[in-house]
């Protein structure tokens, strides 16, 4: 059930990328990691110029992705952009230190004049656990303890803490302090677990749903659970957002071909890790028509976003762009059309109540 005041909400529209290493427009050769990181700055500047609300960079430690330290890239973007929020999607808190996460993003917040946003996650990929010396058998316990510690740190008061996996603190003040006694803007990324929803409510964090396959409407119960749980726990009912993959081009046909060449390849590679079957043409076409892929010309993509957001009751939509690498020109075109045509059209459609 969508709340009656849904169409009066303040919507946000963002872009997410894992820093998939792009391909050169002329030679079609894969960029170096250094080139890929520099192009992300170019993409972020374009997104800022177009008025897109948020840019979220994912943390990964894998061959196909260039971003292993999102906050460093975001720090560079802080000096090149003016208004766009600079966040992550996600920071793998389980294999990180909550003190260091706070310190890095409080620093980013200062450099960007209050535009930092961290999204905490357990990690859909798990390569960071052995890389940083953590045991995957502690997967759930690590996140539970570290998000509890993080929630204490961001209050800005001296921290006294004793944990199983984390360091002990005795009335320790963590620096730098946030300006104007603000709390660090924090989301929790959720892949589809009721326990994750309830945890986010307990600590008072808004949620981003990662919807990467199937019909988005199946996530509506999670939005309802968040709202019900917040009221029952006497916590604020904060906005829920979603992110999904997409490709936007001048025509549906061109967008379809780019998505088939790159997004399908990416999903097949992901499926090898997770035991999924390879993507069939039928499944791919279902994902575009009814599922979680936002592929097409600006009107096609805008119509689908405007149908999906009210069905779920979400107030933020992030488009995951560049999956599988893609040619740099096609990545920039997706950003250009998303910010210049899709977002304004979605706002029109939502205002009309369609």
Automatic annotation (TrEMBL):
Q: What is its EC number?
A: 1.-.-.-
Q: State the Gene Ontology terms under molecular function.
A: monooxygenase activity; oxidoreductase activity, acting on paired donors, with incorporation or reduction of molecular oxygen
Q: Quick one: a GO cellular component term?
A: cytosol
Q: What class of enzyme is it?
A: oxidoreductase
All copies of the Luciferase-like domain together span 21-315
The alphabetized UniProt keywords are: Monooxygenase, Oxidoreductase
Checking Gene3D superfamilies in the record gives:
Luciferase-like domain (3.20.20.30)
NCBIfam families linked to this entry? LLM_2I7G
Q: Supply the PANTHER family for this chain.
A: BLR5498 PROTEIN, LUCIFERASE-LIKE MONOOXYGENASE
- Indicate what this protein is called per its UniProt record: Oxidoreductase, LLM family
Q: Which organism is it from?
A: Enterococcus italicus (strain DSM 15952 / CCUG 50447 / LMG 22039 / TP 1.5)
């Amino acid at each position: 059930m969508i709340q009656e005041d849904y169409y009066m909400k303040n919507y946000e529209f963002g872009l997410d990328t894992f820093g998939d290493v792009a391909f050169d427009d002329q030679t079609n050769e894969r960029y170096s990691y250094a080139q890929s990181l520099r192009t992300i700055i170019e993409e972020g500047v374009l997104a800022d110029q177009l008025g897109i609300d948020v840019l979220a960079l994912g943390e990964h430690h894998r061959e196909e992705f260039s971003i292993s330290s999102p906050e460093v890239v975001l720090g560079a973007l802080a000096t090149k952009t003016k208004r766009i929020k600079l966040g992550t999607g996600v920071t793998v808190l389980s294999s990180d230190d909550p003190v260091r996460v706070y310190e890095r993003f409080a620093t980013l917040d200062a450099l960007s004049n209050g535009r930092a946003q961290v999204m905490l996650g357990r990690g859909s990929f798990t390569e960071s656990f052995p890389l940083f010396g953590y045991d995957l058998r502690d997967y759930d316990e690590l996140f539970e303890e570290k998000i509890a510690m993080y929630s204490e740190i961001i209050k800005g008061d001296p921290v006294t803490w004793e944990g199983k996996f984390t360091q002990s603190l005795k009335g320790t003040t963590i620096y730098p302090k946030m300006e104007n006694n603000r709390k660090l803007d924090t989301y929790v990324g959720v892949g589809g677990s009721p326990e994750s929803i309830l945890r986010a409510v307990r600590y008072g964090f808004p949620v981003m749903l990662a919807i990467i396959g199937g019909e988005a409407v199946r996530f509506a119960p999670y939005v309802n659970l968040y709202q019900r749980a917040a009221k029952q726990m006497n916590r604020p009912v904060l906005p829920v957002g979603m992110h999904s993959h997409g490709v936007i081009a001048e025509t549906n046909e061109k967008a379809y071909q780019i998505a088939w060449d790159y997004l399908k390849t990416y999903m097949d590679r992901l499926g090898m890790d997770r035991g999924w079957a390879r993507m069939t043409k039928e499944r791919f076409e279902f994902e575009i028509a009814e599922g979680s892929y936002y592929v097409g010309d600006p009107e096609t993509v805008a119509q689908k976003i405007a149908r999906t957001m009210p069905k779920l009751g979400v107030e933020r939509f992030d488009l995951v762009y560049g999956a599988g690498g893609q040619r740099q020109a096609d990545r920039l075109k997706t950003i250009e059309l998303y910010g210049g045509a899709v977002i304004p059209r979605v706002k029109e459609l939502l205002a009309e109540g369609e």
